[in-house]
């Protein structure tokens, strides 16, 4: 097809449905001379879901326009992003991503022989790349690095240095993959502008950047691998697809933040060029649309009922998913899936000194390495006193009753967010089994847990236990009620940091670990206003 297109037609195909293009003139100039070289990278973290069909359909456009396309499996980035992918699972996650992404491309008819697949650690650990990372880190300010990753890198109260490296590495990938343009979501815009600013300082060329819009998930917010209800997994059964679409946000006449309608626009129309809305004959029967604007117009006018839209998307989506499901019925791919994404409630690590497959007593402490939320000793606490830290105006010194003979001393950075009088006598949540840490000369014996949202200004709120809670009551994640917490979390294994990555507030301000609720015997843990906030 590319041979039949002139440069302007290629540009239109490359840029259709994109939200923004940085460097349009550069792209047009290259197309006058040769084919465009583009790369799309994906960090190998959570399981890819159906929203990945959005970039896949654009990759199909790139190939139709004659582009040379590279897909980067960014395994090192997955680890740097607050350890979203444990080091020991990186290789398995890459293999899973490669299999599932190829299956997706095959399901939409993209020829794999036109694509180049690259693993990040194949070149990112080289001497030359490593030296460029050091060179770049001597130029990029901490402010610029943090700002660049704000919408992509997991935001936590105490960020790791690795998260600051992430945007710079993504910038360097453009040079080391020898491309003209990078393609990604508009949430990566700040990383793209960092690349445009700093690559020339290393003597490398400035690339163009092609940005997809962020497609709403089934709940109306961004579709996320870590939010079970916001996404449809690529291996979900037909029954699960039906159930999740039935619960999806799709208000009659509302075309804003409508994940079902967005899927039609950004996936089904680019792939097929039309969309069939299936309706009962007594309501006019099926109608085939060849223009998305007409679908949107009819939905806004309530000519298309949400139930009919969902049912029609269900049919089209299952056609895309069926070859992927079939491929992953193979025993070796089932094994790969379970190994790359082990069930934390079932996965038991073999302890040091234990014989794999050996019977008998002991086992060498396999449970010690199991990353499950029941390791955390989170309790309801009552703030019995609060005052400024004697040596730091930005810190509070609190005494919190956690159901022990004496209150625990807690040092927190809440001065800028909560007035002392609002903390006094307040019921809060406290993590009690961290190693005590001195903060400006005073030992903090626990951590007061809060919800937070990064931005200008940053917003922080203490978590609220259910009304009627008492100091010392245990907080647990549903499904882990009977397990006992560790006496003390091992700081060397970063247990808290790894579990904390998946703690967040839902859109209803309810605390969750992954898709499971944080609770006491009286009910759910909540915050007042910080929807979608992180917990730390």
UniProtKB/TrEMBL annotation:
This is Tyrosine--tRNA ligase. Gene3D superfamilies: HUPs, Nucleic acid-binding proteins, Tyrosyl-Transfer RNA Synthetase. One of its GO terms (biological process) is tyrosyl-tRNA aminoacylation. GO terms for molecular function: ATP binding; tRNA binding; tyrosine-tRNA ligase activity. Residues 354-365 have a biased composition (Gly residues). Its EC number is 6.1.1.1. It comes from the Eukaryota. Residues 337-372 are annotated as: Disordered. Pfam families: tRNA-synt_1b (PF00579), tRNA_bind (PF01588). The keyword Cell inner membrane does not apply. Its main location: cytoplasm. Keywords: Aminoacyl-tRNA synthetase, ATP-binding, Cytoplasm, Ligase, Nucleotide-binding, Nucleus, Protein biosynthesis, RNA-binding, tRNA-binding. Belongs to the class-I aminoacyl-tRNA synthetase family. It is found in: Cytoplasm; Nucleus. Residues 372-476 form the TRNA-binding domain. PANTHER family: TRNA-AMINOACYLATION COFACTOR ARC1 FAMILY MEMBER, TYROSINE--TRNA LIGASE, CYTOPLASMIC. GO terms for cellular component: cytoplasm; nucleus. It catalyses: tRNA(Tyr) + L-tyrosine + ATP = L-tyrosyl-tRNA(Tyr) + AMP + diphosphate + H(+).
